[in-house]
UniProtKB/TrEMBL annotation:
Pfam families: GTP-bdg_N, MMR_HSR1. Residues 329-576 form the Hflx-type G domain. Gene3D superfamilies: GTPase HflX, N-terminal domain, P-loop containing nucleotide triphosphate hydrolases. This is GTP-binding protein 6. Keywords: Coiled coil, GTP-binding, Magnesium, Metal-binding, Nucleotide-binding. One of its GO terms (molecular function) is ribosome binding. SUPFAM superfamilies: P-loop containing nucleoside triphosphate hydrolases (SSF52540). Residues 96-115 are annotated as: Disordered. The lineage of its organism: Eukaryota, Metazoa, Ecdysozoa, Arthropoda, Crustacea. Residues 295-325 form a coiled coil. InterPro entries: G_HFLX_dom, GTP-bd, GTPase_HflX, GTPase_HflX_N, GTPase_HflX_N_sf, P-loop_NTPase.
Amino acid sequence: MNLFCRPVPRLATLRSCFQHNVFTSLGAPSSGRFCCSYQHNHLQSRHSSGASILHSVILYRRIPRQTNSSLGSWCRSLTTQSYQLKELKASTGFRPATDHRGSINPGNRPDSEISVKEDEDSTVVDEAEYASLLHEAKIFGGGVVSESGLSGGMFVILPWIKWGPQQKNATTSQLLLNEACALATSLKDVTVIDKEIVKIRFEAKQTIFGTGQLITLTQKIRDMRGLSTVFVSIDILSRSQLRNLQQEFGVRVVDRYWLVLSIFNQHAYTTEAKMQVALAELPYLKTRTREDSEREIIDSRIKKLRAALRKVQRQRENVRQKRTQKDFPSIAVVGYTNTGKTSIISALSGDSSIVGRDQLFATLDVTAHGMQLPCGMRSVLIDTVGFIQDLPTSLLASFNATLQDAAHADVVLHVRDLSHPDRLMHHTTVMAALYSINLPSTTPIITLDNKADLITDVQQTSKSREDKQTARAPTTSADIHNCISYLSSDEQHKIHFQSESDATTVATEGEEYVTKLLVDESDMTNSERLQFLKEQYYSTPSLIVSAKTKKGLLNAVHAIEEQLLRVTNRRLYRMKLPTGGPQVSILRKIVGFSTETINEEAPEKTEIVTAMTEKQLATFKKRCRELAASNLELASSVAGKE
Ligand SMILES: Nc1nc2c(ncn2[C@@H]2O[C@H](COP(=O)(O)OP(=O)(O)OP(=O)(O)O)[C@@H](O)[C@H]2O)c(=O)[nH]1
Ligand SMILES: [Mg+2]
């Protein structure tokens, strides 16, 4: 039952009852196509949540002619809920948006968490058109990722180049194989039944492997029970390699690009994320066709999807502008996949409904969550798509619209997994990715070394950290201050990239897909390169934290606060104002947030700590002077009458 193909109605009236509509709009679906059971179950069970109630309101508005009686009864309770929320907001001043990941099924997920323009044009992409895009793409590709899901037993093969310029020295074959298996098991219905590292001298043009290796592998594969797919863990297999391997093995063969696409597809809940997956898969499909007419049609689909995504990008820009207008600075939480970004956000925002999952690319939709800092200032934590090494550039490029939220953040929180053996490579991959999304070099990066609970002996000096898996927890405020770093220039980091258009061209031209986000190691020896990665990793100051035990998170909060105050040109002020007096209301109106404490021994004064810009301070002083003057006038007129 598709109830929601109509454009989104005006939401202005609804929003007006929310004081902080930036957050509420972030929690709102843009062009959501919810199913009825979702509305009923989810909203009724979660009616104490602000975001849920907003969804309820939108749904109510969007299906005015809905006759479903159960929905009707829910609608009747809506008004009461709205008022409850209003009161709640009035008393607490702030309600963060919630993420529903933990509580709903993928198919029932809110369609997008970004705001929509309040006009008739606000539907991001028409569902029928999207279906036709996928259908047409399927005709050419022999199956698109969304329709040809991977399931069953999988054999993971890692071709490992023993030596030469293509050898990877910052990691080991075993670590890469583990990552490949983790990728495979991130898919819902896939089990890894065997895995193998196959050492090769180079990737053979027709079959990747040498003749003898191919015979051995084929024999092994044919003897395997319950096998449905062979995953060859290289970036992209050429058309001929794919065909030859499939013929040889007699089962379906997939490469890393296809596997990652399948994971993205399974984890993409919003229309935006789905469109991004489709955009990433079309160039891939183009490499599989030789017909010019087919290529042309795929090109026109790519154009259409890009146009639709540009629209999303504009909407995101609107949301960002709104945040700026409303003075909600944003913190983008970035990092390698599975390092604990979502868990950190859950811990920092205090929102237990957001749960991290032990899966690669668990988060594919950029979501925003409110966080209140100790000074009372409110900010938005933005959860982002994790990065991974050797992710084909066109895959990353298609997520550009989403990643722009990270690029425009006031502060970046880089979450690293301290317990991961491949953390050097993780660090470089993330730095390279941040560079590729054009993160300004002036944006402060706060690095958090997460999962410290998995490491023993966390009080060692940073020197001993290099060789053992130990970490030093910061102890002084200077340490906390020193955890800030900035993205260095590409010159310094010797990072080499190709642009989005280059990447797509390479992808579409196909046979040899070599674009990588890697350190340019052309003039480095293997050991030099490893040394370089170590230096990069250990020279980046970091805070040791654990999202699980909450250890070290207070330091992180202080570091965030310090940086946000700096980038928004604010300073902290502490003042004592008459309790319940007009000055307090003036301050609240100007600043919007502060922490207020009334001392029991002197209750006539309220102690207020607040962060203000110079301009806000000047306005506050001016208003207080005007107040004093009008009080004086009033006093003298009263005295005159007497
Ligand atoms: N032991 C331990 N586990 C953690 C910690 N933080 C996160 N995890 C676990 O790490 C796994 C990944 O956590 P997520 O928060 O989903 O990681 P993520 O970076 O958001 O992952 P993606 O969205 O897939 O990129 C989950 O199983 C978490 O429970 C921590 O501090 N300690
Ligand atoms: Mg996540």
